[in-house]
Amino acid sequence: MQKRNLELRDINENEYTVQQESNLDQALGMGLSKDEFELICNKINKIPNQTELGIFSAMFSEHCSYKSSKKWLKTLPTKAEHVIQGPGENAGVIDIGNDQAAVFKIESHNHPSFIEPYQGSATGVGGILRDVFTMGARPIALLNALRFGSINHPLTKHLVSGVVKGIGGYGNCIGIPTVGGETNFNKSYDGNILVNAMAVGLAQKDKIFYSAATGAGNPVIYVGAKTGRDGIHGATMASAEFTESSSEKRPTVQVGDPFTGKLLLEACLELMQTDVVLSIQDMGAAGLTSSSVEMASKGGLGMHLNLDLVPIREEGMTSYEIMLSESQERMLMILKPGSEEAAKLIFNKWDLDFANIGKVTNTGRLVLDKNGFEACNIPINPLVEDAPEYDRPYEILQNKKVIKSDDFQSNQTLNNILIKMFESPNIASKKWIWEQYDSSVMGDTILCNGKSDAAIVKIHGTETKNSLGKGIAMTTDCTPRYVKSDPIIGGMQAVCEAARNIAASGAKPLAITNNLNFGNPEKINVMGEIVGSIKGISQAASTLNTPIVSGNVSLYNETNGQGILPTPVIGMVGIIDEVENCLGISAENNNTLIILGQKQNFTEGWLGCSLYQEIISDNLDGAPPPIDLKTEKQIIETIMTLNNNKLLTGAHDISDGGLLIATCEMLFKNRLGLNVNLPKALMSSNSKDHLLHSWCFGEDQNRIIISTNEPDKVVSLLKESLIDYYILGMTNTSSNLNLNEVDTISIKEIYNINERTIPSLMDTYKS
Amino acid sequence: MRAAIAIFPGSNCDRDMAVAIKKITGKSPLKLWHKDTEAPNLDLIVIPGGFSFGDYLRCGALAARSPIIKNIKNHISRGGALLGVCNGFQILIEANILPGSLVRNKKLLFTCRETTLEVQDSIQSPFLSSFNTGDCLNIPVAHNEGNYIANNELLKELENNGRIAFKYKKSSEIETDYNPNGSLSDIAGILSKNGRVLGMMPHPERSINSLHGGTDGLKFLTKSIEQIVG
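Structure tokens for the assembled complex are given below, as produced in the milestone run.
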């Protein structure tokens, strides 16, 4: 083959400068800084051509390099006895016993979903599924964490409708159940929604596949869909702030094809049953660039690829386009030499492309040929090792102002406030959303979407004579208004709420994947939010022994300089030994409801940063409710003990909206009533009394409500464990929630409002 | 019992159906690939749910042109029993094995939820003969195109000849939203002229344990298999 080197080594100095300037312009256009461009020229000892520059720009993007957050991510606790693989691979892996492993990760697709909500969210789901099955795991569940702008913003309904359809469109078609998640609305997301998708898979512990390339000379195989011109430079787009012209970036949004995704999933898992796959990496952000570079870099090797052999969808694609395309449903694999033909048969069966596009080398360089020319020849190390790592200045702002219930001058009755709360899409049932997701395909779903605090999916094939088997519990959580007010407490709270939700569903919390969504890290207070919440997450995760095993960072979530509420989403996974032991939130008749928590949180309520405050005063202020990590751990352990002794009928954590909201949610399903046992000080309070309001709607942490048929046994066990508790009352069939002489709340009425809120908001929108 | 599941690229309820059948018969059903042109003599073929060929063109349209359809037609002409669930029902319609059409749900949204089915007064069918007219089964649906439509002539033909197997039914007096897709006359499943082919939108294989989805689907499949084996 005739080769011509396109490098510019032999040109004179004058020409060099001209060339450098024009390439610098190109580099700036690709999102690199001048310093970064000069660093690249130095490291590779030449002026990069367009393809090389594109590769550097993608690898140096915030999305791929984590340059602003890396320093702090390193401080997260990532180890525990049950961790098989921590951060750094396609997904995290934990030991769940029986020689099985849970493989999971969460990832954002925020920017594309704002520009094109259906495709953006669909490919978010497709991408996270590939991350999981790349590791050799069959995906068994999907979750998500969604944040939209104010429901009254003109774009919100369009975005909700498109995102929900997109998530369903991919998950339903590929046949993985979407079992849980959270959806919130806040005006800070008006111009920048968050779409975080989480996937959980199941693998044999001794059949985990990794991405590090091995063995110079081994074939590099491209499988899956063809490469098109979609999503070129998506990773770079995802690392920039939005402006009004962002919709012009629609062509950089990838297009998903869940049908091809399903074929790729089955073909890869079928091939992985053999022993020919040495390493494998999905082509996600930055496509063929990041997959080839990361595989080579992790193996300390090089790669020589012939881009003419890459299956392409359109004629005349340049090397730059092929390397930067983010076409979906593609994988890169290193196979054992000689096994190509057998592997190809499997992919042919599934009607997928299979192309041998090059070889692993021991040069440590990425060499790409195209049309007989060398289109790229750069050392791999600088792409990864020399990716910039910034120690950005930060300031952690902690709001310490304690809001007292006296600060509120409400003239509304309890019933009115409760109605307002359930008329808010933040509290109301999300049934309109989750009915659009197939939650029961695969036949292993036990609890999902609203029935429990965490979803539970049983582990296929673990049935015994007495049980349907073991189950995996999963949840996603974050309360951004707390993080905004105090990033450290907010970070802790997200972890604690997730763990509490896992425990309230009857399972044991095990490990975390996190999705850190923030604004522009070059702003000192945004960087403070990042650092603060990582500190909070670290402290809570250490205390609860739930290490972080995978994750994703999404920065520059800003539009025209307006940042989102800091949103470090925690995805947590737990285990339950017998799924029959799972707990839903719904109480049964004649159940005693008991709050577990700390004594001081039973008599007054913490209204700072609460939804009550937001709804009553249209404002959020003050410190978020404090968290006691030691108590959290005790409560989680106690719930597990109570449940193992089969003393519970249900459990529900107290979070958004406080005690009264959680209580209503426990009564809804069976339309039960309850005569609430009020603290002495409130017994003679009237319906507009702010002290009563703060007791009902305060969001004090470390609290779970349990329901039981055997209150005496529960109480004696609680006394033994030295856990504070408060008996809330016994359920009845009246369907009335009685708080005192004055307030009788109709559970049926509130239930109807809860069910109606989101459908009536969305039915006015026709897509 | 010789049962098989026909699998197309994009089928995604094949494993679930196999689990349900194995739970009943103790034996995993045979798997038929869409390109298979030969199949052994069978008592029952099930076309499972999913998104065969990605639902491209129209749900079931491409699958209905697969080589295996010839096999399936031979199977029913031999008097074999055939069950199409969800996408399987759509395929049977596209293959002209069952009449009518399944179009987008009335609300234009995918819907995954519980439904109550009422057994109709039908012709002799192995799928229904263990049930009485008016019996109710709670079986979930999950689909985007389950809205059954037919012209007046066809509807009359189905009604007069006992070819409507199931209708969606109110589970309580106050329920207004009991029909999940707006299908004509609340139709959830229909039979072939001889009663040996059943197409239904709800997923009986998702209702086989008491913890999730109940066990009415298991009851339905068990009774059907008993009747088919005879």
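The first strand of chain A starts at residue 83 and ends at 85. Confidence is low (pLDDT under 50) at residues 1-15 of chain A. Further analysis is deferred to the final report.
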